[in-house]
Design a protein that fits this description.
8 helices; 231 residues; alpha/beta; single chain; 4-stranded antiparallel β-sheet; 12 strands
């Protein structure tokens, strides 16, 4: 089944370049040069992934990301000419799953798109040979349906957040390093500054799980090592 990809960028050349490479991989591409039209299109068709430029003429990519996250859980990749860690953290905090800085290699973007879609497929379908449900301390995570419940109330998680929580819960009692988290979740080489990426997603997970600031119940920080969920 062909996947629908939403792309928002005010540079026509970049839109056309991304479309060329994604079409070559049999993706359906829907291009927009402004945020207003892109947001309107969300009511007209179902998307499997979005690629958002940060700097747009009407609405910033950050604002579009936040609005998408109000209702949808498909993966979001941010594009930006900015290179500061704060911009990256802002995008991740608002719900982005990945981040690529311009100028970028189109083949790298395609690889990241495939990785995000593969993650969604993996966690929506799951493997029948493994346990599909983790249930402990008021948290219930269903790997097959991609649902998470806290004290019987559903918690809306992005694919990346779900995968992080599943990995930590599946390895309860074991400290998972930031390096291992990044390699297993993002499938990419780990560099020291990628710790910010991991930290932001952990913080978002804690907020959604209603963790008390400074004294989390579920996801513990082991300083200088990584994170763990107690048995």
């Amino acid at each position: 089944m062909s996947r629908n990809i939403l792309i928002v960028d005010d540079e026509i050349e970049i839109l056309d370049l991304i479309e060329l490479y994604l079409n070559a991989e049999s993706f359906n591409v829907y291009k927009f040069i402004n945020g207003k039209d892109a947001l309107q299109s969300l009511t007209e068709r179902q998307y499997d992934l979005a690629i958002l430029d940060v700097m747009l003429p009407d609405i910033s990519g950050f604002d579009i990301c936040a609005k998408i996250r109000d209702e949808y859980h498909f993966p979001i990749i941010m594009l930006t000419a900015k290179v500061t860690d704060m911009d990256k953290i802002t995008g991740l905090t608002l719900g982005a799953d990945d981040y690529l800085t311009k100028p970028f290699n189109p083949l790298e973007l395609v690889a990241r798109v495939k990785a995000q879609l593969r993650r969604v497929t993996q966690y929506n379908q799951g493997s029948q040979s493994q346990s599909q449900v983790i249930d402990f301390s008021g948290i219930v995570i269903n790997k097959q349906t991609h649902e998470c419940f806290l004290n019987e109330k559903e918690v809306a998680l992005t694919p990346t957040e779900f995968e992080i929580l599943w990995l930590l819960c599946e390895n309860r009692g074991e400290v998972i390093s930031s390096e291992r988290l990044f390699k297993e979740i993002w499938g990419d080489k780990y560099f020291k500054n990628e710790n910010n990426t991991v930290m932001v997603h952990i913080r978002r997970l804690r907020e959604k799980l209603q963790e008390p600031p400074g004294n989390p119940k579920f996801i513990k920080t082991v300083w200088g090592v990584g994170y763990k969920v107690e048995k």
